[in-house]
């Protein structure tokens, strides 16, 4: 299982995109809206965040299931690829920002 804390609060931050649109529309139309957010960390793929959010949804909706292990395997692959790209960039003698 992933350490997904339901109901935890962020001390600061901003919400953009579709989640922000849903929250605003809900406020304007007096309609309850729930948006699940995941903290994205440097060097961590969005697949890992998707796994956290998916696990939280499974806790909220009885009988719902999702293959979290597949998401975590994909996250590991993507994170390894990102580390390799970063390592290759720092060891390269070519400066593309001249």
Structure description:
By secondary structure, the chain is mainly alpha-helical. It has one domain (17-91). Helix content is 52%, strand content 0%. It has helices at residues 17-28, 46-60, 68-91. Helix 2 runs antiparallel to helix 3. The model has no long low-confidence stretch (mean pLDDT 81).
Structural class label: mainly alpha
Return the domain count.
1
Strand content: under 5%
Mass-distribution shape: flat
**Extended strand count:** 0
Helix percent reads 40-55%
Give, in order, the helices and strands.
HHH
Averaging pLDDT over every residue, what do you get? 81
The biggest sheet amounts to: none
Low-confidence stretches: none
Straight-line N-to-C gap = 46 Å
Over all CA atoms, what is the radius of gyration? 18 Å
DSSP summary: helix tally = 3
Question: What's the arrangement of secondary structure elements?
Answer:
Elements lengths: L16 H12 L17 H15 L7 H24 L7
Helix pairs in contact: 2-3
Concise account of the structure shown:
The chain is mainly alpha-helical. The chain has three helices and no strands.
What are its keywords?
98 residues; mainly alpha
């Amino acid at each position: 299982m992933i350490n997904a804390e339901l109901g935890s609060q962020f001390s600061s931050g901003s919400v953009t995109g579709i989640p922000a649109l849903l929250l605003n529309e809900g406020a304007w139309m007096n309609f309850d809206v729930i948006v699940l957010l995941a903290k994205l960390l440097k060097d961590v793929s969005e697949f890992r965040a998707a796994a956290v959010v998916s696990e939280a949804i499974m806790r909220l909706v009885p009988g719902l299931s999702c293959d979290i292990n597949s998401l975590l395997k994909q996250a590991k692959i993507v994170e390894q690829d990102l580390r390799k790209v970063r390592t290759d960039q720092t060891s390269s003698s070519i400066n593309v920002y001249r």
